[in-house]
Amino acid sequence: MRLGFPGAGGRRSSWPRKTCATAYHFIGEEIIVSLQDIVVYLEDLPEGQSRLEYAAALAARFHSHLSAVFVADALELHRYSGFAVGTGIAHMFAHHSEQVRAAAARYRTLFDAALLQEELHGDWRISDRVWGEDLMIHARHADLAVVGPADGPSRRKTPLSLSEDMIFASGRPTLLVPSAWRSDRQADHIVIAWNASAEASRAVAGALPLLYSAKQVSVVVVPQAGLPVPDGIDPGKAIVRHLGCHGVVADLFTLEGSEAGHIVLDFCIERDADLLVMGAYGHSKLSEAIFGGATRYVLRHAEVPILLSR
Questions:
Q1: What are the residue boundaries of the UspA domain, all occurrences included (predicted)?
Q2: Does residue 272 have a pLDDT over 90?
Q3: DSSP secondary-structure letter at 73?
Q4: Do the beta carbons of residue 202 and residue 309 sit within 8 Å?
């Protein structure tokens, strides 16, 4: 019995459309598994529309259900706002509420148009929580969460950015889309940054449907960066063998150097990669996100979408 993943990219492109209630199928001797439920988080930012279009194209590739969560921006008061009284405060809140309603309506129209264009089923939600458990709950009932970059000019004034919060707290694979990424460029060439860690293993498991539908998969290993090498096991060859058991053919690249994040991103640029899969090493506190060196570098400098798990 072989495990497979339907999708575009040359393999399994002709499988019929399915609903999210049929994520596991027995067809002959195969079990077919796919991304059946995707959620995209939207904010009122210039790159919001392209992120929505990217998520819709991804959902169309796997015939997935697509949910959109519009994250209503919290009102940020200036430190001198306390001098505003009476009708001034009321006007301030009324103006902000109207801006939020207008932005939500604009994105709802864009979302409905994307569903129609890609022939998708989906649902629309609005959250007035910009971080924390109330926001994570949407991702925990999905196969994949699509968000924006972790640290950009529009980063929110909250303890963690939305993307950092999602990586640490959602418990689901998180796909970060750079602000300038073209929405029509999907994951045909996927690079796996492999260091044999638990986080990297979970990232690969979460990315299997994408890996199966890709046209090219490259595994990058940087031994000098601290890759554990147990006796008798070559981690790079071991993960390539494991992927082969799932029907994914991958090329192995062992690269020299100690700065794993820099090396992996350079490889992605040189090989024109469409997606980077890696584990997110680190931990979070209420006031900050503490990432490992390679993860921190990639989050700050990546110009390619990243799928992370921890």
A1: 253-309
A2: yes
A3: P
A4: yes
* pTM reported for the whole predicted model: 0.82
Query: Domains in the chain and their CATH numbers?
Result: 35-76+90-176 (3.40.50.620), 189-309 (3.40.50.620)
Distance from C-alpha of 294 to C-alpha of 281, rounded to nearest angstrom: 8
Q: How far apart are CA 120 and CA 131, in angstroms?
A: 28
Which amino acid is residue 190, in one-letter code?
A: I
Q: What is the DSSP letter of 218?
A: E
Q: What is the residue type of 173?
A: P
Q: What whole-number distance in Å separates Cα of residue 105 and Cα of residue 227?
A: 48
The C-alpha atoms of residue 155 and residue 299 are separated, in whole angstroms, by 13
Least confident range of 51-60, 89-98, 141-150, 164-173: 89-98
For residue 306, the cross-strand partners are 176, 276
pLDDT tens for each residue of 288-301: 455 567 888 898 89
User: How would you classify residue 168: left for phi > 0, otherwise alpha for psi between -120 and 50, otherwise beta?
Assistant: alpha
What separation in angstroms does the CA of 156 have from each of 75, 81, 83, 148, 151? 11, 19, 24, 12, 9
Tell me: pLDDT of 86 over 90: no
